Amino acid sequence: MSSTPSMGFEDQIVYKGTRVDMALRTVTSASGKRLVREVVLHPGAVIILPVLQNGDIVMIRNLRHTVGQWLWELAAGTLEPPEPPELCAGRELIEETGYQAIDIKPFGWFYTSPGILTEKMYAFIATGLTPGPQALEENETITVQAMAPDKILAMIASNEIVDGKTIAVLLKYLIRNRVGV
């Protein structure tokens, strides 16, 4: 995690964590006033959309301790620098779903919450899937379920899928496949 971004901001690290750092970032406004902002520095992450041969999508049900709820999500995970996103995607797919992919292709990237967080999330589509055992980390409680795209859309509409990164990637994928964008 870089403590000084390329745009000339000044960061004062106030907390050094194992996965993220917290900084007070000094920026200059358009009027020339110097302002201090709280920023979470993150090494980046991946999200993987696994597509089975029949078109179903492999979802996970993840116990998220931060919100105290089970959430429907796509497999995702934090980069372990200097790990490239492509390798992280393959690793996280196996860890969280048990599936191995013949092909993992980039599907764009986005910032998850750019108002407070530097996390850049790289999206991937995984195909040619072979099921296998999960390799969950000690703090993970995850179940796996394949779902039809129509069911996923209904779950997004009914607020059963509430994870923002998952919604973004699913909708981008489903729009591209249905509308041909």
Structural write-up:
Helix 2 packs across helix 3 (about 165-180). It contains three helices and ten strands. The chain folds into two domains: about 10-40, no CATH class; about 45-180, Nucleoside Triphosphate Pyrophosphohydrolase, CATH 3.90.79. With about 180 residues, the chain is α+β, with helices and mostly antiparallel strands. The strands form three sheets. A four-stranded mixed beta sheet has the order 7-4-9-8, with helices on both faces. The chain has a three-stranded antiparallel beta sheet with strand order 1-2-3, with no helix packed on it. The chain has a three-stranded antiparallel beta sheet with strand order 6-5-10. It has helices at about 85-95, 150-155, 165-180, and strands at about 10-15, 20-30, 35-40, 45-50, 55-65, 70-75, 75-80, 100-110, 120-130, 140-145.
Summarize the structure.
By secondary structure, the protein is α+β, with helices and mostly antiparallel strands. It has helices spanning 85-97, 149-157, 164-179; strands at 10-16, 21-28, 34-41, 45-50, 57-64, 69-73, 75-78, 100-111, 120-130, 142-147. A hairpin with an 8-residue loop joins strand 8 and strand 9 (120-130).
